[in-house]
Amino acid sequence: MLKILGKTSSINVRKVLWTCEETGLAYSQEDYGSGFASTQTDAFRAMNPNAMVPVLIDGDFILWESNSICRYLARKAGRDDLLPGEPRACANVEHWMDWQATDFNSAWRYVFPALVRKNPDYNDKNAIAAGIREWNHCVDILDQQLQRTGAWAAGETFTLADIVLGLSVNRWKMTPFEHPDFPAVNAWFERLNLRPAFLRYGNNGTA
């Protein structure tokens, strides 16, 4: 059985758990991270030198980096619908996943600690405003893409791109600031809410 190490409040752990549910792979999950088992031990660093969650253990194989884990799970389960085998279709899914991990995630680096975690070190109003603008800009990019596809992030079918982006948009929606109206994103988010795994690990009250 697969083992996922990481607390379920982590957005990156939740994308892995959601993928496990979508693929039907059997797994267990153990809470690691702040407030739970420490990631700052020699044993954990031997698995992930970054001392971060999630970590996947599959027998004697250990993997870190959440999007890489999601790709591995889709391939292990033979789910070409989630991550196509054809090179162009695969690249189309993966470039949205990579964008989520870089540009989209970077947009909230200041805003989320300031407005959700109330971290006193993040109190620069100009930095908060700039972060909100950049975050909204990223959601606008996704909205334009969804207008083009009329369905899902990478095209006509649900893929891994929707999993990683779905959690990002959930965080955007739950962070307290005035949100512009993005009709295509809102319609897509409602489609995600029809998936039990998203309700369990995505839109479940956790940002």
UniProtKB/TrEMBL annotation:
EC number(s) given by UniProt: 2.5.1.18
Pfam family, one: GST_N
PROSITE patterns: GST_CTER, GST_NTER
Keywords, comma-separated and alphabetical: Transferase
Signal sequence region: none
Protein family (similarity comment): Belongs to the GST superfamily.
Annotated protein name in UniProt: Glutathione S-transferase
Naturally occurring in which organism (per UniProt): Phytobacter ursingii
